[in-house]
Design the sequence.
């Protein structure tokens, strides 16, 4: 069974190389890299000193300050990209079609920054210092959940988690949802914010301090490459 034809009608991007699809694509074509030194916390104790952080993202273009405070940054980025995609597609959502529009957006690691912040608050002040929004503000399926709440979508809503292939698997599964007639429209992709001290610790153990900015001593697929990218 071949099923329905599936096409992409809208794209949204929040990334180290651009805050929307147009700027990201332009920078990619120009050969610009999003890899840069990590500067939003003290990186001195860590071996991994650079990554793909997103600097300059204006969350209030997409969420109110009150909403944003309840969410980890990976949700901010996913919401931004999802809203861009819906607007790019010029998708009209009505009472007649909202049950046929779904969302599948995942994350490889989820709200690691929120987990770290709440752990620190707990360590210093005990259980009462944990945020009441700790769970909904950090679990992986809440990009999909919050997009559905925002637009009143009632189709399939879930998240696939598969490390670095998370976004690809969510997009592929969304295509299957449409092809098999389970949904007419799916908003799909992935979102990550992994440049927190918790999450750079392990990669730092995989590499060495030979990784110097701006020219690391090696690149993936080089014969003598001994690091991780």
Sequence:
């Amino acid at each position: 069974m071949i099923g329905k034809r599936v096409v992409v009608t809208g794209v949204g991007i929040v990334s180290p190389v651009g805050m929307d699809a147009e700027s990201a694509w332009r920078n990619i074509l120009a050969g610009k890299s999003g890899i840069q030194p990590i500067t939003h916390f003290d990186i001195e104790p860590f071996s991994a000193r650079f990554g793909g952080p997103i600097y300059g993202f204006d969350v209030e273009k997409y969420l109110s300050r009150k909403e944003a405070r309840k969410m980890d940054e990976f949700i901010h980025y996913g919401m931004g990209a999802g809203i861009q995609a819906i607007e790019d597609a010029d998708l009209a959502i009505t009472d007649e079609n909202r049950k046929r529009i779904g969302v599948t957006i995942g994350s490889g690691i989820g709200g690691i920054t929120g987990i770290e912040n709440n752990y620190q608050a707990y360590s210093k002040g005990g259980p009462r210092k944990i945020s009441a929004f700790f769970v909904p503000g950090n679990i992986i399926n809440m990009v999909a959940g919050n997009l559905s709440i925002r637009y009143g979508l009632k189709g399939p809503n879930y998240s696939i988690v598969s490390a670095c292939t998370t976004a690809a698997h969510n997009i592929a599964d969304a295509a299957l949802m449409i092809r098999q007639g389970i949904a007419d429209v799916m908003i799909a992709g992935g979102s990550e914010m992994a440049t927190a001290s918790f999450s750079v610790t392990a990669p730092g153990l995989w590499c060495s301090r030979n990784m110097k900015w701006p020219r690391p001593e090696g690149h993936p697929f080089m014969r003598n490459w001994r690091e991780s990218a």
Q: What stands out?
A: The two ends are 40 Å apart (CA to CA).
